[in-house]
Amino acid sequence: MNLLLSFRILLLVLWLGAACFFSFVVAPSAFSVLPSRELAGLVVNRTLMIVNYSGLIIGLTLLASSYVSRQNVDRIKLWLEQGLLLLLTAACAFGQFVIAAKLSDLRGQIGRPIDEVGTNDPLRTAFNDLHGYSVTILMTAMIAAVAAFFLLVRRARNTNNL
Asked: CB of 55 within 8 A of CB of 115?
C-alpha cells in the first residue's frame, strides 16, 4: 500500500472517529452531566463546529488527493469514491454554514434558554426541526465516510495483491 493511500485512509478514519465520539459520547454526556441544558447546548454546538470544519477540510483534502492517486483504479469506483467524499464535504459545509447558522439565528430570536419556550411555540418547533436536520446531515456525512473508507481499504488490499 502506498504512503498517500495510507494517509488518506488515516485522515478519513480520524474524522469518522471524531464524528462518532461526538455523536455517541460528547453530546449525550454534555446533556447528562452539565448543570443546564443551555450550557450543554453551547458545548455541543462548539464541538460540532470543530467536527464540521474538520470534515470540510479533510473532505476537500481527500477529494483533491483522489485526483493524484488514480493509477490502476477502476474509473467507476473512483467516481463513487469522489462522490462519497463530495457528499461528506457538502454535508459538513451545509451543517455548519446553513443549519448551524439558522440555529444560531433562532437562538438569538428566542432570547432565552430554549427549554423556557413552550413546545408548541413556532420558534421552538423550528429549532427542533433544524436540530433534526443537523443530526440527519451529520449521519449522512458519517455514512458517506464509512462507504468511502471501505472503498479505500479495498483499493489498498488490491494494490498489495498486484
From this structure: no
Query: How far apart (Å, rounded) are the C-alpha atoms in residues 162 and 157?
Result: 9
The Cα–Cα gap between 44 and 26 comes to 7
Interval 47-85: pLDDT, tens? 999 999 999 999 999 999 998 866 677 889 999 999 999
- The number of residues making up the chain comes to 162
In Å, the largest CA–CA distance within the chain is: 63
C-alpha cell at 157: 488490499
- Beta-carbon contacts of 63 under 8 Å, excluding residues fewer than 6 positions away, are 82, 85, 86, 89
Residue 16, all three cell numbers = 469518522
Q: CA dihedral in degrees (113, 39, 20, 28; nearest 10)?
A: -80
Alpha-carbon distance 58 to 141, whole Å? 12
pTM of the model: 0.91
The helix (run of H) or strand (run of E) holding residue 25 is none
Please report the DSSP string for 73-129 in residue order: --HHHHHHHHHHHHHHHHHHHHIIIIIHHHHHHHHHHH-S-GGGS-TTSHHHHHHHH
Where exactly are the structural domains of the chain? 3-161
